[in-house]
Specification:
2 copies of one chain form a homodimer.
Chain A: E1 3-4, H1 29-32, E2 40-41, E3 47-49, H2 54-76, H3 79-86, H4 101-117, H5 121-136, H6 146-150, H7 164-182, H8 186-202, H9 216-227, H10 230-242, H11 272-289, H12 292-308, H13 340-357, H14 360-374, E4 392-393, H15 407-415, E5 424-427, E6 430-433, E7 439-445, E8 448-456, E9 463-470, E10 474-481, E11 489-503, E12 506-513, E13 517-523, E14 527-530, E15 542-547, E16 550-555, E17 572-578, E18 585-591, E19 597-602, E20 614-615, E21 618-619
Parallel strand pairs in A: 1-14, 6-10
Antiparallel strand pairs in A: 2-5, 3-7, 4-20, 5-6, 7-8, 8-9, 9-13, 10-12, 11-12, 11-13, 14-15, 15-16, 15-21, 16-19, 16-20, 17-18, 18-19
Helix pairs in contact in A: 2-4, 3-5, 4-7, 4-15, 7-8, 7-9, 8-10, 9-10, 9-11, 10-11, 11-12, 11-13, 13-14
Chain lengths: 621, 621
């Protein structure tokens, strides 16, 4: 295994030429029209994850993280009590922050996802009892918010930045997940009543409310998919279209993505997580309603984010000041904010952009954010969390047990166990494999049932073995994502095909597939030396190391001389899997021309051992 | 046909991210070791070119350019007379420049290539008579140079910058080509006698001569391949190894690539064409002798050239001051030098780098230089030439009939008809298709004869139809280059295969091929909007247009408002083939949001109609 001159994700290093490194060629509007894709992700509830990378993580979330979260919500804080008190089932008063309900909803969503791979009757019973409190706290008209019910009931819907719709959105997401996991509809009915209330009061022609923290939009689209009720989709579209028309009551509308109508957006501004949730909702509506103006705007902001405002780790939002964006190419490493929730948001948004365009490049970004900026948010033990994910540390930045604003732990709690939902998608006559993880699923392609199994040691190795078990032999497309970092790959099939194609980042195989057919994809995974855009001041004269989707870093514990570490064109690299390293990881040894060695570990694994300095970007000499 | 957000040659636009546009990740030395490829290009003499793009060009070269060249060498100047006078067959004295012999040799090389696709008895007879003069001018000891023979015979081998070996190199190349085309060996024997003389006087342990203008090295390797005589390869290696040890007698050794030993080269310096010829010879020797130190040095300088010093057109050497290089990213458009010979040199060098590494990315560069920086050097009529190829003109830069220093016309004269030699290569058990042109060839793969035919409308369309006619059914690899600009492609075969792979820029198909088997490769060819590396001051705020391998430009004749032309994210693009445009070309119409249209023509076609302003890089608003 040697270092490669092949540059990150380029199939042609030539492309990174002095005169045409090229970076910002936004789509022409005519390309912006929504592609008539009918791609639907295969629901998490249909996917059993079973591999040596994800299974231990999912186990940890089920066995530790969820417990931590329940303990925090139910014991150490009063988040669940708030509902019981609002319902009049308990004495007391509201404690916490005005959006704390959302953490409970996200926790329930996480429990739901977890129950699929980890059935647990006791946990389910506990969730049922929490849901009982929630349902009981609902007002007769459908309204539900423990803070407003208990603290300032007279001020409902007076402050657009108080997250009432944000909480409603998380309620809807949690309720749908719980219904999928358990078949129980109490929570779903509660959420639906609140959604009906919102339609009645804030639909087209009703009150011009602008939700200060987006989330409700994507949740309403989920509810539309779940129920078939068009009014939910209508409301999502109305709320999105209402932005940028001066209805917002804030001083800095750009912070809320409320400065211009969304169809006029050209760049990402303000709070990173809010922007991600808005863009996710827009992508959903663009698919369903053919809103070319949304698609064009999303293509523009995607270029802005990806080309100018994203860290190598897939993290975004470099500034702690506004939890968001500053100017292009402002990507400091030690002061990076790169909130865990924003990386999760990148996965949510980019998986939807993939659905909108049928293009694997969006999953390249989602994958980058998941394996790096998101996974770094949780400790190896599953009980400590990063809110902020810098790319450099003097040794003083550590994961914490919990946060006053607990959005990140509860987001990890629901996101990580949902990861199986990113593995597969189907369209009219195609099976799409988007993220490679050992897993099995039952999907429906063109009306026929197909059993699907993936075996792989991804992200440590590039071999993926896909077994197909259609109920009867039938023709359909198998679409395997070829990640952008992958330059050399091969496939073999046990069946016979007479051609194939590469289309928007997918290897497309047409065949008449029969029970037991196997497709083996083999992706070369060399160590890559990465250079930043020269406009990024913070990375001048530095290089980073990536292998497959994994970004690496140096920690002081492995590299006592980290302060003087450097790489050069004379450095050679060796990658080797070490089973004993934090549950197993491929580590990279860099050997300089002088014989000195550096030991790189996956970025997401940092700060799990003796604290010390850490760098992702290393001086290049 | 619409503009694409896909950025030039990137399989993942994501890759051009703010934090990792990445450009200069030089190879680690361990990768520098020569790969044991046995890839050999299929000789031009085996390839019949027959398509609507190249055939008219080859016809023009045969019918016009060669005549111009012969007229210039034989009538308007005394280049051929110089030989006759030196031979004592004619009265008179030397006229011209000290390296003019080389133009005659290049002309003969061009005639040889041309005879394959355009048999012409009269032309062949004329070439024979010129060869008679040349052979007659050879000294008894093998020395041959009409300038030294006639002007300063006592000063032979006193000035390293007087091109005696450069002329010898071109003699060898011309002689081998003429032998391949006609089977006549008189010229080859003459060249060989001179080469024997050089071995005797300048081989290892003999005089430490450093040729001031490289060329002899690659020619000696050709002679080794032709004759099997190892001493020619030895001399090539010796001459290369002798550089950088202080033997050179010049004040600015960097101009001559003589500042450091070649194995220590890290960047390209000095005269562009000389550097190209040196690197070509090094690549040849690296393949044959496994010189890992050469390979590592070549990998380093390749990165330096491609990432920092190459124009979008594949032209290099931005400065007229030294016909060569200045500092990285110094790529002015109007003042660009980008000598035609240097673009030809890029094709020579990069096709050899391809042979060294078996990587298609080098052919991406060769193709860029051929279709743009090289083809621009000759007028549509075939009788006017650019020495200098700027990317912008105020309307005052035009092709000329000839030049005092005639290297460029005579180089075009030999390069263009040799283009069939770039189409195919073979290795032990594989057929490589490197440049797509309508053509047929008889090749030998693994000891068996295989008839090969390519039908295509490349570079205007991306469909390539390859027909295989092996003498008997046999298994071998078919390797089709997937150009770096191509993101979406598909193939079909009439045979059956059970898998394929993509390896270093090639689609590799394994099959048992039989007579009449067809592989159809279909490459999507969208219009691409290209941005330069931000370190290129000259291109700040500008964008260029490329489609397939063709770089486009705006000319005033089509765009009277060229002074205020601009592109934006609202621009849409339509590509259409226009048969009446200079023999047929795909032109691109760009329509702005305001409805205004721009008409882009291929860069190589500029200055063939009413003179006026021209720009490649267009303001982006």
């Amino acid at each position: 295994m040697v270092a490669s001159a092949v540059i990150l994700g380029l199939s042609v290093p030539e492309a990174a030429n002095a005169q045409f490194t090229s970076s910002a060629a936004p789509s022409a509007p005519s390309q912006g029209s929504a592609v008539a894709f009918t791609m639907r992700p295969v629901d998490f509830s249909q996917v059993k994850v079973n591999d040596s990378f994800w299974s231990p993580i999912l186990d940890r979330v089920a066995n530790t993280t969820l417990d931590v979260c329940i303990d925090q919500c139910a014991v150490k804080t009063h988040r669940i009590d708030n509902f019981a008190i609002a319902a009049g089932l308990k004495e007391g008063k509201f404690e916490g922050i005005f959006f704390d309900d959302s953490d409970v909803y996200k926790m329930l969503e996480g429990i739901a996802y977890s129950l699929v791979n980890h059935p647990d009757k006791a946990l389910e019973a506990r969730a049922d009892s929490i849901i009982n409190f929630i349902a009981a706290a609902q007002h007769d008209d459908g309204y539900l918010n423990s803070y407003y019910t208990l603290v300032t009931p007279e001020k409902k819907w007076t402050d657009m930045d108080k997250h009432e719709m944000y909480c409603a959105g998380h309620m809807i997401e949690g309720a749908i997940a719980y219904y999928h996991a358990t078949g129980k509809d109490k929570f779903l009915n509660t959420a639906r009543r609140f959604a009906d209330y919102l339609c009645l009061n804030f639909g087209k022609g009703k009150r011009n409310w602008v939700p200060g923290h987006e989330e409700i939009e994507l949740a309403l689209v989920k509810l539309y998919h779940e129920t078939g009720e068009v009014k939910y989709l209508d409301l999502a579209e109305t709320l999105i279209d209402r932005r940028g028309h001066g209805y917002g009551t804030w001083k800095k509308p750009e912070y809320y993505q409320d400065l211009v109508p969304v169809s006029e957006l050209t760049e990402i501004t303000g709070h990173a997580v809010r922007a991600m949730y808005l863009f996710s909702g827009m992508a959903d509506v663009a698919v369903l309603r053919g809103r070319a103006d949304y698609t064009q705007a999303l293509d523009r902001v995607w270029n802005d984010v990806i080309l100018r405002k994203m860290y190598l780790t897939g993290g975004i939002g470099s500034s702690s000041h506004n939890e968001g964006f500053t100017v292009p190419y402002d990507l400091p490493n030690k002061q990076a904010y790169a909130e865990t929730c924003a990386s999760i948001g990148m996965a949510l948004w980019n998986s939807r952009m993939n659905r909108l365009h049928g293009d694997g490049k969006y999953f390249d970004v989602a994958e980058r954010s998941i394996y790096n900026g998101t996974l770094s948010g949780i400790s190896y033990t599953g009980d400590h969390f990063f809110y902020v994910n810098p790319l450099e540390s003097a040794g003083d930045h550590h994961r914490q047990e919990w946060f006053g604003c607990a959005c990140c732990p509860s987001n990890l709690d629901r996101f990580l166990p949902s990861v199986g939902g990113y593995a597969y998608a189907v369209s009219d006559n195609a099976l799409w494999v988007n993220m490679y993880m050992g897993s099995s699923a039952n999907v429906s392609v063109g009306g026929s049932d197909v059993g699907v199994k993936v075996e792989t040691r991804y992200p440590w190795e590039g071999e993926v073995r896909l077994t197909l078990n259609p109920s009867k032999s039938r023709e359909f497309e198998v679409r395997l994502r070829i990640p952008g970092w992958c330059r050399d790959w091969s496939y073999k099939t046990s069946g016979k095909i007479s051609g194939s194609r590469v289309e928007r980042g997918y290897l497309v195989l047409n065949g008449k597939w029969k029970k037991g057919d196997v497709v083996t994809l083999n992706m070369d995974m060399p160590v890559e030396v990465v250079e930043a855009d020269p406009r990024v001041e913070a990375d001048k004269g530095l290089r980073a190391i990536q292998r497959g989707p994994i970004v690496y870093c140096l920690e002081e514990i492995d590299n006592p001389g980290i302060a003087s570490a450097s790489l050069s064109s004379g450095t050679t690299f060796t990658a080797a899997y070490e089973p004993s390293f934090l549950g197993g990881a491929t580590l990279i040894t860099a050997r300089g021309a002088d014989g000195k060695e550096l030991r790189f570990i996956p970025y997401f694994d940092w700060d799990n051992r003796t604290p010390g300095r850490m760098i992702v970007w290393v001086p290049w000499k």
